[in-house]
Amino acid sequence: MKKRTLGNSNVQITPIIMGTWQAGKKLWVGIEDDDSIKTIRAAYEHGITTIDTAAVYGEGHSEKIVAQALSDVRDHVEYATKVFAHDLKYEKVIAACEQSLKNLQTDYIDLYQIHWPSGSFNSEIVPISETMKALNYLKEQGKIRAIGVSNFSRDQIIQAAEYGTIDSLQPPYSLFWRKVEKDAMAYCIENNISILAYSPLAQGLLTGKFPLGHKFDPQDNRAKNTLFQGENFARAQQALTQLQPIAEKNNCSLAQLALAWLIAQPQTSAIVGARYPEQAIANAQTVKVQLSAADMAQIDSIGRIVTDPQDDQPVMWNW
Q1: Which residues are catalytic?
Q2: Which of 123, 140, 184, 237 is at 20 to 30 A from 72, Cα to Cα?
Q3: Domains and CATH numbers, the chain
Q4: Which of the pair, 96 or 221, is modelled with greater confidence?
């Protein structure tokens, strides 16, 4: 899998990134560690060398699972993890990074990201200058190689960039959720900031495996995802029906079609979760799908059936 340069750093990443929120188990149902380890390993063996995790995913459990899957090939993979909104004071950033290094069984993190802006989830308001000071120190120490932000608006990225180099933005971004295009995308392109799209399959909606009326377990975070509710869900089914012939023409699944469209967007890579090895392998094979300009335009148009009527809510969940 041909790699891409992460922002202005010297870190190389794959266009398809293995997402491991589910490996943390919390807010997911039916996840087994053995499956997670095998799935992450399968992703690596089929060319996905960049792995995204976070300290808050199962309170470090996801990071530990990543280490179990890949510690023997650490020099051949790129680890991206995140510091949560409650740990953005200087000393807390340093301590959180040390814990993540321990969990990941490594002495450096390729990409360290601010998971949510200060103040999110009722966290203490911390000046971005203080958080960036800590991240710059960690970078100088060689404990992190690049700095990224997640769930930041354009204005918040600009503020952070006053205090250091921001190499990536991680926003929710898919064919069915395109808010970043109206806000931060142009700034990211102008400033060579990589866009690492999370929920690139709209939490599985773009696979076509969830028919109208599907109900998630209340403990599953997707039960509160607005895309699976009301008119949004109905419009998604309509769009999926129209996307199916394009997928068939390109000899790929709906999921691969949606991912191929996404990684063809400017500077965009896709962070894709998977429960089982066969899903990770299918995700990796997306890079073989070459969409024509006509296909890209048609997919874009069909996606707007879902996105055009949406409100300005920046996140998908009713938390």
Answers
A1: 57
A2: 140
A3: 4-204+261-289 (3.20.20.100)
A4: 96
